[in-house]
Amino acid sequence: MASIGLVAHDDKKDDMAAWALANAERLSRHTLFATGTTGGRIEAATGLSLTRLKSGPLGGDAQLGAMIVEGKLDAIVFFIDPLTAMPHDVDVKALTRLATLYDILFACNKSTADAVLAAI
């Protein structure tokens, strides 16, 4: 069983909910954490049990980052919107940096999310 963080930018939340629904059976075998709004969308679409953190801009990204540092996350699936400027871009970069520094699985789109889920 792995601990997985789930995050999606606003224009990618539908994609995340659809991906989680398509992979609900496999995701149900793991401990899931999600930023606030993303977590709500996933719960509504799938019925999966997960721990909801703060919304990304309100500190949810930082909470996931702290979990990485503490060794409490094995993977992050972060559906990033490359076409929209994010006011909390610094937090996004920090989360990406920590995932890289601590060498955890990090997926930023559906293809890599599928590969990460298959690997754990």
Tell me what the structure shows.
Helices cover 48% and strands 17% of the residues. With 120 residues, the protein is of the alpha/beta class. It has a single domain (3-119), classed as Methylglyoxal synthase-like domain (Rossmann fold). Strands 3-2-1-4-5 form a five-stranded parallel sheet, sandwiched between helices. Helix 1 packs across helix 3 (36-46) and helix 4 (60-69) runs parallel beside helix 5 (89-101). The radius of gyration is 13 Å and the shape is globular. Pfam families: MGS.
Key terms:
single chain, 120 residues, alpha/beta, Rossmann fold, 5-stranded parallel β-sheet, 5 strands, EC 4.2.3.3, lyase, Methylglyoxal_synth_AS, methylglyoxal synthase activity, Methylgl_synth
